[in-house]
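// run 5 | inverse folding | seed 20
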């Protein structure tokens, strides 16, 4: 097989057709997500030929002491059968134990049925994405959103001079500065995961134009107090990659959230859903995302291939 190659911005046009062909709604099937986190997770890929089909393998791992984490092999046509996926992954892993993540429940069941001794399956709740109706987030109607409206109205009343605008290339340096300041305020020097997130956000901003991203900033007295970035995903979904705000401004998160969704729906009338990605197991973030009443969670399963036999 050809060697695995590090993921770069130049790979977007090559890899995106494979990601889209899966039809999956999980954020890891966005090239932007893979690229943002590729330095942290050392993501690489390989294009292979298998039975006259061209397939994409994507893998990652933070350090050499952990097994490689693969996505299910992707083609450009019909989904790959589980037995073929198992054969390809075992060959790529060169006999070492490995993980396969981002699996649908059907993929997980099919893999487990092949070899229940060497393939163990589990759901990964911390990785479930939150899916919302776009109209719900744009309008915040009804009793269930009363607290959101209270925070939003408090912001609008206290900061009537705020401004919002789309992110243009000229705004990128200021967005990066804001991200760095947010990182210091929130304690990135104490919490490594926040530092890693800030690194991923910076990477997205540095590739903003090439990745085809869109965003919005909120300003008070010409200073950015909030920023958010997303993209149209799978035709009818708005995928939010970044949402940062300075917490001293009550209601700022509710404000930037609603205004960005309204902006997206006006520009792309086909949008029905908003994917606000996972909570990474953070209890506060989980509570916040649940409070917006998702219509569903994008479930993801993990398969552990332990001591796989030779195919």
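// decoded
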């Amino acid at each position: 097989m050809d060697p695995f190659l590090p993921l770069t911005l130049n790979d977007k046009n090559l890899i995106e057709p494979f990601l889209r062909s899966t039809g999956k709604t999980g954020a890891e099937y966005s090239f932007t997500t893979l690229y943002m986190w590729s330095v942290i997770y050392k993501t690489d890929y390989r294009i292979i030929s298998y039975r006259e089909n061209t397939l994409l393998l994507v893998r990652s791992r933070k350090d050499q002491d952990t097994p490689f984490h693969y996505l299910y092999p992707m083609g450009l046509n019909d989904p790959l059968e589980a037995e073929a996926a198992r054969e390809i992954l075992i060959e790529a892993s060169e006999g070492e134990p490995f993980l396969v993540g981002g699996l649908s429940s059907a993929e997980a069941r099919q893999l487990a049925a092949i070899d229940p001794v060497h393939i163990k399956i589990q759901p990964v709740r911390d990785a479930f994405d939150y899916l919302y109706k776009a109209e719900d987030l744009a309008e915040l109607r009804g009793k269930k959103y009363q607290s959101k409206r209270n925070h939003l109205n408090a912001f609008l009343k206290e900061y009537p001079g705020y401004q919002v605008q789309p992110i243009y290339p000229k705004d990128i340096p200021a967005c990066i500065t804001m991200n760095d300041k947010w990182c210091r305020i929130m304690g990135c020097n104490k919490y490594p995961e926040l530092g890693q997130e800030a690194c991923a956000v910076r990477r997205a901003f540095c590739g903003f134009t090439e990745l085809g991203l869109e965003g919005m900033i909120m300003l008070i007295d010409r200073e950015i107090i909030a920023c958010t970035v997303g993209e149209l995903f799978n035709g009818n979904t708005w995928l939010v990659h970044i949402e940062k705000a300075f917490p001293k401004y009550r209601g700022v998160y509710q404000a930037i959230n609603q205004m960005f969704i309204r902006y997206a729906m006006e520009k792309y009338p086909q949008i029905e859903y908003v994917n606000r990605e996972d909570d990474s197991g953070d209890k506060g973030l989980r509570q916040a995302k649940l409070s917006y009443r998702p219509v569903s969670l994008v479930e993801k399963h993990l398969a552990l291939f332990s001591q796989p036999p030779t195919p």
